[in-house]
Amino acid sequence: MSTESLNRTSNVVENPSQRIETPRRVNVDVLKQKLLEESKKEKKKRMIILYTFLASLGVLTILTY
Questions:
Q1: What is the spatial distance between Cα 62 and Cα 56, in angstroms, rounded to a whole number?
Q2: Per-residue pLDDT of the chain (65 residues; tens, 9 = 90+)
Q3: Distance separating alpha carbons of residues 56 and 54, to the nearest angstrom
Q4: Spans of all domains in the chain
Q5: What is the pLDDT of residue 48?
Q6: Rounded CA separation 14/6 (Å)
Q7: What is the C-alpha to C-alpha distance for residues 37 and 19, in angstroms, rounded to an integer?
Q8: In terms of Cα–Cα distance, which of 36, 18, 20 is closest to 28?
């Protein structure tokens, strides 16, 4: 490890106040869109499970008669 890299990192640690902190902004519309897409995926999964259950129940009912 070179001395230059050590000096560079120590300078960064010594002067943390020089770092400019920018406020992070969140786009609410993007978050709402992601939440909507996620809920649609969950609804699809639930519907597929429900229809699979009903179809298997129907097949079992037909096979028992």
A1: 10
A2: 556 555 555 555 455 566 677 778 889 999 999 999 999 999 999 999 999 999 999 999 999 98
A3: 5
A4: 3-64
A5: 98
A6: 12
A7: 37
A8: 36
Long-range contacts at 38-46 (CB < 8 A, ≥ 24 apart): none
What's the one-letter identity of residue 64? Answer: T
CA distance 54 to 2: 69
CA 35 to each of CA 10, 48, 59: distance values in angstroms, whole numbers, following the listed order: 43, 20, 36
Gap between the Cα atoms of 64 and 3, Å rounded: 82
Whether the pTM exceeds 0.70: the reply is no
Token pair, residue 18, equals: 């020089």
Question: What pLDDT is recorded for position 49?
Answer: 98
Residue 23: partners with Cβ closer than 8 Å, 6 or more residues away? none
